[in-house]
TrEMBL record:
Name of the protein this chain belongs to: Alginate biosynthesis protein AlgZ/FimS
Membrane-traversing stretches: 12-38, 83-101, 113-134
Source organism superkingdom: Bacteria
SUPFAM superfamilies to which the protein is assigned, alphabetical: ATPase domain of HSP90 chaperone/DNA topoisomerase II/histidine kinase
Domain Signal transduction histidine kinase internal region: 151-228
Amino-acid biosynthesis among keywords: no
Protein species of origin: Reinekea forsetii
Length: 337
């Protein structure tokens, strides 16, 4: 058993990566504000003293950040108390070393031990507050990710049975009218489930999603025969582009059910898959019948896709619905996650 496994039942100190430019900027800014506040709270304000303290504090901050970046990889192996003690002691030792060096540079003959102790206490208070802030920030991030994962599990738990239910309905119709095609459809559906629906990830490669859509359309082609016509428009340079699992198939299913099967003469659906270096655009267009059929009843599938886009991308992805006199189009614009 590894040390990490031995400590699995205990809480650990966790904080974000503080070696990023944004985290370092935050640390430098907060530390400088603390220095300014310290000087303003004193009896007299001197620019030379401010410069001296600022230089010393920035050395402490940058050296401490470098040390904590190294220690961050070891935190999963330590208990919460051990992690806190090691990180806090590291910052304190670095602070004490910088203070002693700076004190020696200023006045090597007369050591101001009271000043060093006072400044060490201030460093300890501030470092404890910053470590606690980073720990709470990481806890909020972890909770947010857990909530997103839970929402995605619930949404995918709805959409996958929805896909299976509709596929089985198609096969049930084929059993009565075309038994041989029904057997082939069962084999095709089994292959689709093995390749696509066993994953627990929220994303799948674009090529895999398109393969699932083609398999679904083959099922519907057996049922609707020449009533269903599909026009593909593809411009794909990155087939491994991550897209949400089952994001295109529900839109195609809606187009088939409401834009083709609902019309006696059938119809054509247009599927466009276009990529730029920044986004992938998925578009499904179906005709609207003279009686207005072809644009209603898009309940579970479209709503599920829209909600999953909101969870996964926030406001970076778009789902646009357009309706004209004779066409109904749904377009997804997906950046890289």
């Amino acid at each position: 058993m590894t040390r990490a496994e031995q400590g699995a039942g205990h809480q650990r100190l966790v904080f974000p990566d503080i070696c990023t430019s944004s985290a370092l900027f935050f640390l430098v800014l907060v530390s400088e504000l603390c220095v300014v506040a310290w000087e303003l709270a004193g009896q007299s304000f001197r620019w030379a003293e401010l410069g001296y303290r600022s230089l010393a504090v920035q050395w402490i901050v940058l050296l401490s950040a470098a040390a904590l970046c190294r220690l961050r990889a070891l935190l999963p192996y330590w208990s919460l108390r051990t992690g806190w003690l090691v990180c806090f002691a590291t910052v304190q030792l670095i602070g004490l070393a910088v203070l002693l060096v700076s004190q020696r540079q200023v006045d090597a003959a007369a050591w101001n031990w009271a000043g060093v102790a006072q400044q060490s206490l201030a460093i300890g208070i501030v470092s404890a507050m910053v470590l606690r802030f980073f720990q709470l920030q990481q806890r909020v991030i972890d909770q947010s990710q857990a909530e997103i994962s839970s929402q995605m599990d619930a949404l995918q738990a709805r959409i996958k049975p929805h896909f299976l239910f509709n596929s089985l309905n198609t096969i049930a119709e084929l059993v009565v009218t075309r038994p041989v095609a029904a057997e082939q459809a069962v084999e095709n559906l089994s292959a689709l489930f093995r390749a696509n629906l066993k994953t627990t990830s929220s994303f799948s490669p674009l090529a895999q999603e398109l393969e699932l859509v083609r398999g679904y359309l083959q099922l519907e082609q057996w049922r609707l025969t020449d009533r269903l016509s599909v026009l593909w428009q593809e411009s794909v340079h990155d087939p491994d582009w991550p897209v949400p699992v089952l994001c295109l198939q529900p839109l195609v299913e809606n187009a088939v059910v409401h834009g083709v099967a609902a019309q006696a003469a059938g119809g054509q659906i247009h599927i466009a898959v276009l990529q730029t270096p920044r986004v992938t655009t998925l578009s499904v267009t179906n005709a609207i019948g003279a009686d207005g059929s072809g644009h209603v009843g898009h309940g579970v599938g479209l709503d599920n896709v829209q909600r999953r886009l909101g969870v996964l991308y926030g406001d970076r992805a778009r789902c646009r619905i357009e309706r004209t006199q004779d066409q109904y189009r749904v377009t997804l614009t997906l950046p890289k996650p």
